[in-house]
Amino acid sequence: MIKRNNKKVCIVVSSLAGGGAERSSGLLSIMLYDAGFDVHVVSVLNNIDFPYKGELLNLGLLKDKDDSVFGRWHRLRVFNSYLKQYNFDYVIDNRTRIGFVKEFIISKFLYTPRQTIYCVRNFKVNLYINSNKFLSKILYGNAYKMVGVSKGIYERLMEEYGFSNAIAIHNPVDKRSDVIKEVENDSLKEYILFFGRLDDEHKNVSLLIEGYAGSSLPEKGVKLKILGEGPDLEKLKLKAEDYGLSNNIEFLPYLVNPQDVITHALFTVLTSRYEGFPRSILESLSLGVPVVSVDCKSGPNEIIKNGCNGILVENHNPKKLADAISRLYENKELYLNCKNNSISSVVSFSEANIVQKWEAILN
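Predicted structure:
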């Protein structure tokens, strides 16, 4: 492939497995590589499931061998040598970032601030920047850019933390989905779907189960499928039992590529307490599947238009969630309208549009 420019970009990730933030980081490497950049990916953990492009430095292999204090220091030296060897034009740091001392060393001694871009991929910004505003400005105030993946995150970085270097660049739709396969007859039975990490503190799947239980769908034989893994799997199974819905709620194991299950769902549901710019909504709509989502911060209200491609619901309100689930199922005219508009509603988040925004700050 002929490169359009000689700029070298290093994308630093916690891993390339698990959740939407990690998948989006891998997708960023693909977009920039295809746009002509010389891309390198550095992964802190040895978890590589999602596709990426460029040269990979997997620091997780070293971590698996030795995670002692000496091992951590060795990995830091390897990373530093790698940065010096390639003399990157830009470092794009997608990691969750905690611990002031460690981040001070990385931001001030490994990175060159004017060439560093920090991504914030969740409205719970203290996963990415120090909760102390004074310390966060010391770490990131002189960075080239702070990229929030939603307008909500961008506004919070600007208004609460005073980052004048903040900018909003949304996550893109990934059109590299596998070809959708035919499924077994049993799987063709009507169902709605949640897919994501089973972490109730974040995803609040308990609210989903409560909302589904209060809707008309169980009595109509429409199942709820919950796809994913996480620390609260058994707790959620017990909650389903408590509602007497063990036969109505099906728990499916985590899939790296869940497109088949998404495509055959009536609609998907998101009930998170907070998000960044949720890939589950983007993926659903891009596959022609409407969404019922709570209006959490941030992201859903930047994607979902009520009655157009789904329904946006007040958060933490199981009654309103139940009503929305019932309404989207029972009102066939509304459902078909949302379904027909799903794909076109996320065209503005295409890779072609999003990569232009990245090129604008990298060039």
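Summary: The longest strand covers residues 8-13.
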